[in-house]
Amino acid sequence: MKLPLTIVCAGGGGVGKTTTSAAIGLALARQGKKTLVVTVDPARRLAQAMGVEVDEDVHPAHVEPAVEGKLFVLMPEPRRSTPTFAKILFEGRPADLERLMKNPVYTTMADAAASMHEIVSLILVAKAIEDGGWDALVIDTAPSRNALDFVTYPGRLAVLFEGRAVGWLGSLSQRVNAGEKLEGGGLFAGAEKRIEALFARILSARFLRDLTQLFADLALVKDRFARFARLAESLMLGSSTNYVLVSAPSGSAQADVVYLHRRLGRLEQTPTALLLNRADDAPPPWLETVKKAADGWPALKGAVTQVEVELATRKRAGDRLAAALAKDVRGVRQWRLPTIEASDPAVIVRDLATRLGPEVGRIAPR
């Protein structure tokens, strides 16, 4: 399977990362690439603006007529992670799915599992990539310094499901349900026999039945899960993957980018671009027109002066951010993006896509 061009956007909260990810996806779609944008932490206002639903399905985006049939969006619902996970793995096995969803051990463990939503999101991505011929994939990570931890989840989970543990625990279920005493003889010897005996001593009969049944059910789909997990791992750490860091003029946003850059280094990944949102480097084109119109109107001229002061403040903040990150994130090309004055997120996405369009090839060279 040929993997799509993949762009993973990472950054702190409040820097416009989700909107920027959508804009990159739109820029790629405008170039004729069939593009899927995935948001791990869905923004419902943006979803509404792009005409998509927040659920486990891939939806065509309706952000502009020119990209109809080329731009698609996946925004998984965090509160539905547990049933979504089971639905994907047990596709075509309704009876097994129903039994799993009634298993109290599964519901307790799944709801309490750290990063369950991120894992489900990656499995959904892998399934979508396997199902359709995509040219490009844009993944918007969660707004957290720990957002890149989930990059390694698929590989680690694949190792678990490809190993002997799930199969062994699954076969244990057959013996428990048959009423065998685990401390007696049977299929296992040595260390495995001692572990069985330990289970029998510390767990109640009901809990032991539920636990072993859980692993018996997971054993039915372990190959399917491992396949999706390996594909997700290739998408996140493969040769066609590009990491883009997104920041904005604030101390916390700058610190988040520096941390994420170091984290990527430990994953042996180098970011291909650093996007600085709200880092204005020049006055907007309309300012000169307004200044000319203000001649002879003292009140309007005073308002224009206030706007110029605000724009100068923004430029200084953008200059400071760009200079600091040039030192802290060396060798990564920067793109400064201006503040876009619009209340409609779809307008912001379209404007950003226009500005990023000529640069997408350099943002994602692989």
Main attributes of the structure:
366 residues, Rossmann fold, 2 domains, 16 helices, elongated
Provide a concise account of the structure shown.
The protein has 16 helices and eight strands. The protein has helices spanning about 15-30, 45-50, 80-90, 95-100, 105-110, 115-130, 155-160, 165-175, 190-200, 205-220, 220-235, 250-265, 285-295, 300-330, 345-355, 360-365, and strands at about 5-10, 35-40, 60, 70-75, 135-140, 240-245, 275, 335. An eight-stranded mixed β-sheet has the order 3-4-2-5-1-6-7-8, with helices on both faces.
Overview of this structure, please?
This protein is 55% helix and 10% strand. It has 2 domains: 241 residues, P-loop containing nucleotide triphosphate hydrolases (Rossmann fold, 3-Layer(aba) Sandwich), CATH 3.40.50; 64 residues, no CATH class. It contains 16 helices and 8 strands. The protein is elongated and about 85 Å long. About 7% of the residues have low confidence. The protein has 366 residues and is of the alpha/beta class. The longest helix has 31 residues.
